[in-house]
Amino acid sequence: MNSSTTDVFDAWWGGPPPVLDPAGPYADNVVVLAWALFAMGVIVTGIVVVALYVAIRGPARWKAKLGGERLVWIGGVAFPGVVLTCLLVWGLWLTSSLTQPVPDGAMRVRVTGYMWWFDVEYLGPDGDVIMRDANELHIPVGQPVVVELRSEDVIHSFWVPNLSGKEDMIPGRTNELVIEADRAGRFGGVCAEYCGGPHALMGFVAVAHDPADWAAWLAGRSMTPPAIAEQDVPGTVPALRPVAAADTVDDAAIAANGRTLFMESGCAACHRVAGTEANGIAGPDLTHVGSRLTLGAGILPNNRGTMIGWIGDSQSIKPGNRMPSYDMLSADELTAIAIWLEQQR
Fold first, then answer.
1. Relative orientation angle of helices 331-342 and 249-264, to the nearest 10 degrees
2. In angstroms, rounded to a whole number, what is the distance separating the alpha carbons of residues 188 and 258?
3. Deepest of 141, 162, 243, 279, by most Cβ within 10 A of its Cβ?
4. Residue 180's pLDDT is what?
5. Is beta strand 185-191 parallel, antiparallel or unpaired with respect to 145-151?
6. DSSP letters along 161-174, please?
7. What's the rounded Cα separation, in Å, for the pair 293 and 287?
């Protein structure tokens, strides 16, 4: 088991993230606007309830005033017109920071939506892909991060409520969203645009690191050789990549068998694992799957048991997703694949 329930309790898995708990400057303004709209809704509802009570049970003199032409003009035209105009202007001013240019050299990440998961690519200064992952985004605390949003199939929407507003992911178009965390932690995200099938089970986790933790995480990932380009060139020999050590000699032997089963069962046709012959692009990149907090795009905590269940019967866990259930594999074979995958960190 590589992560405990406590580790992922504040991440997305199994439920929607909180929408009124900002953890960064870009989410602060969105939440302030949301509270203002809630407050205005309560005030207007109160006025309507009072007017309804007066209309039904109030004194005759009040009823007459309530039905007068003056009140209709004031309460029905002037009041909503002025209030809605003020809210519109104030809301545009309040959220204008969401579209302000970010400093040159800001960290950039490309997130691409698929039915029903998120591909994540970390970009270098020249826009080249330097790391790849899926359904999980790591960022440093206190730095704005530009997220380039794309889609490979239908319209999705990227939303991590604690860190910013939401933005659509549209096929053939690149939108940008800036996120920033002012404290370390794990924050859940969702696809906020109905995209068919298991849309409600398309989740995401953003992890914000303190500076020292961020440096350690980045150094660990930089151990992965730049095999992305090499893997894509036919005929090249993929470089070896460090993996987590097996717990026991038995685990090492089982993992070796798991790797063979992974390659021979068709998994490698859809999934990429850097440093191996697995080079598929139809499904999530599994190069670092062993270190992820969740499986199935945010819906399960990541441990050996859930990994076995996901491979063996993913269609029962997330009906309609594009990964077939490998129920033809025995329990020992599923366990072997899971042990090998949990070493991919």
1. 100
2. 31
3. 162
4. 94
5. unpaired
6. TTT--EEEE-BT--
7. 14
Sign of CA dihedral 193, 196, 200, 202: negative
Q: What are phi and psi of 343, to 5 degrees?
A: -85, -10
**Helices 25-57 and 79-95, axial angle in degrees (round to 10):** 170
Q: How many CA atoms lie within 13 Å of 120's alpha carbon, on the beta-carbon side?
A: 24
Q: Yes or no: say if 174 and 149 are a contact pair by the CB < 8 Å rule.
A: yes
Q: How far apart, in whole angstroms, are the C-alpha atoms of residue 131 and residue 226?
A: 8
Condensed to tens digits (0 to 9), the pLDDT of residues 276-300 reads 999 999 999 999 999 999 999 988 9
Nearest residue to 286 via CA among 325, 340, 226: 340
DSSP per-residue codes, 235-296 = TPPPPP---PPPSSHHHHHHHHHHHHHHHHTTGGGT-B-TTSS-B--SS---TTGGG-SEET
Give the burial class of 325: count Cβ atoms within 10 A of its Cβ; 0-12 exposed, 13-18 middle, 19 or more buried. Answer: middle
The predicted-structure confidence for 217-238, as pLDDT tens digits, reads as follows: 988 886 554 444 444 433 333 4
Residue type, 49: V
Tokens of 37: 């709209």
Is residue 55 helix, strand or coil? helix
Percent of the chain with pLDDT strictly greater than 90? 67
Is the CB of residue 286 less than 8 Å from the CB of residue 341?
Answer: yes
In this predicted structure, the answer to whether residue 302 has a pLDDT above a threshold of 90 is: yes
Give me the percent of the chain exceeding a pLDDT of 70.
88
Token pair 């998961």 is found at 117
pLDDT one-digit tens code per residue, 7-44: 445 555 556 788 888 999 999 989 999 999 999 999 99
23-41 exposure pattern, b = at least 16 Cβ within 10 A, e = fewer: bbbbbbbbeebeeeeeeee
